[in-house]
Amino acid sequence: MKRKKGKPMQDNIEKICRIILERVTPKQKERSKIEGLAKKLEKKVIDASKAIGVDAVVRVEGSVAKDTWLSKEPDIDIFMRVPTTISRKNLGEIGLKIARKATKGSRQIERFAEHPYLEAFVNGIRVNIVPCYNVKKQGEWLSATDRTPYHTDYVKKHSNTKMRGEVRILKKFMKGIDVYGAEIKIGGFSGYLCELLILHYKSFIDVLEAFAQHKRRIVIDIEKYYSGRESELQLLFGEPLVIIDPVDKGRNVASAVQPHKLYTFVAAAQAFLRDADLNFFYPTPTTPLTAKEFIQKSTKRGSAMLFITFGKVNAVPDVLWGQLYKSQRSLNKLLQLNDFNILRSLPWSNEKALNMFVFELEQRFLSPTKKHLGPPLEREHECENFLKKHLGSSSTVSGPFIEGGRWVVEQRRKYTDAVVLLNAKLRDGGRNAGVAEQISQKLRKSFKIFVNDEIAKIYGKNGDFAKFLTEFLSGKPKWLETAQNCGD
Questions:
Q1: Residue 222 located in a structural domain
Q2: Nearest alpha-carbon partner for 171 in 271, 252, 73
Q3: Are 320 and 341 in the same domain?
């Protein structure tokens, strides 16, 4: 059931959508430039493949091929479909060799999905050159990227000019609220996922209407693979958002969408339908706090901000962010197990020489003594073990004594200072604390912990970090500034 909107609001939404569509649809001059560059690169990849003796089928894929790319934000995806006789072990390296040759002289960045691929910047345009296998039949995938040509064909076959415009509006909205991008760093909605949402719901507004009413789970099966088999679908896919891939019934296209990004989209959809505004699509750029303002703001909060900083990790960005997030989760658990209450935490990296974990704790220092609850008296065997452990223990401050029908003891904490805890556990790299391997190797060599305004020097010298920390301290999505009545 769609939510009711008055005519003035409906007219405003339609007006905004027209404005956005006009802005994000490429004009003929820009279209000719991008399509011409794509064809030129396609030929260079073909020539580079032949030069090293690889019989590859090369084709432009992605948003340029499907005509769903945004004006002034083009990404060109060139896929090389190589023979299945090439081993999985060699697929990435062969692909990189061809891509480097085809984009020689351009800035190149090695990326990683299921296997390595190359990102290059040619004439200021980002280009992804990706290897995959030339599988003749859908479902016989040897690598995850084998599906991409089939995705392109499917979207082109089932979309029309109006729907491609709706995809563009949806993409721009998702970029504006920071939920667009399936890479590990972002964990949001991919371009293909946006296209499937429009194929299913038909329009940008209908997508927002559907997600604004999100309760527990959204399941979309465009090809009706699981029609009459919904219980099987429930067993196969447990995520809160399930979009069955039309070219692979065993894949959830939305599996990379992190819950935080999904629920951000849900909240932004609700807010936009209440108070539509261009700022959802074009948020105001963040102006970092000055170092003095940062110190004042962080001091006023009264919480404890901890920053674990370390240097360059030799990993491609996607691997780096995977390691950062894994390590952050482990360090969160370490702090929580030692009774430090985390308000918020995030990793940050400039993907070069500076990486860090950021924690905001309720407090850095804890009381030396804590209460530890034992078993209820009816669990006689467990009570016996509890008493053996704590009677006469050097960590026991008081007790054991009975309180509320169970044994209780007051204990001396091993760590009362979060900084001391982190230093102790990370001195050997933190592998025992769950820190990811490549991060651990770096921590073992060197790291520093800064508390509150001790980070001011780094803050003042690094504009990207200053912007990140300004947004972290705010904690509020930019679109919420526009949304009036969101909590009504």
A1: yes
A2: 73
A3: yes
The structure tokens 């959809």 sit at 269
C-alpha 56: how far from chain center: 32
Domain of residue 421, residue span: 291-365+416-479
- Give the Å distances, CA to CA, from 342 to 18, 464, 475: 44, 24, 14
Q: Please tell me whether residues 321 and 429 are part of one structural domain.
A: yes
Question: Could you give the 3-state DSSP secondary structure of residue 351?
Answer: coil
**Does residue 407 sit in the same domain as residue 302?**
no
Within 159-203, residue ranges assigned H as helices are 161-176, 191-201
For 243-262, the pLDDT digits (tens) are: 999 999 999 999 999 999 99
Q: Is the peptide bond before 376 cis (omega within 30 degrees of 0)?
A: no
Sign of CA dihedral 413, 414, 415, 416: positive
- Dihedral in degrees, nearest 10, Cα atoms 186, 192, 196, 202: 90
Residues 6+ apart with CB under 8 A from 27: 71
Q: Give domain status of residue 189, yes or no.
A: yes
Q: Residues 64-90: pLDDT tens digits? A: 999 999 999 999 999 999 999 999 889
| pTM to 2 decimal places | 0.90
Number of separate domains in the chain = 4
CA–CA distance, 419 with 486 (Å, rounded to integer): 39
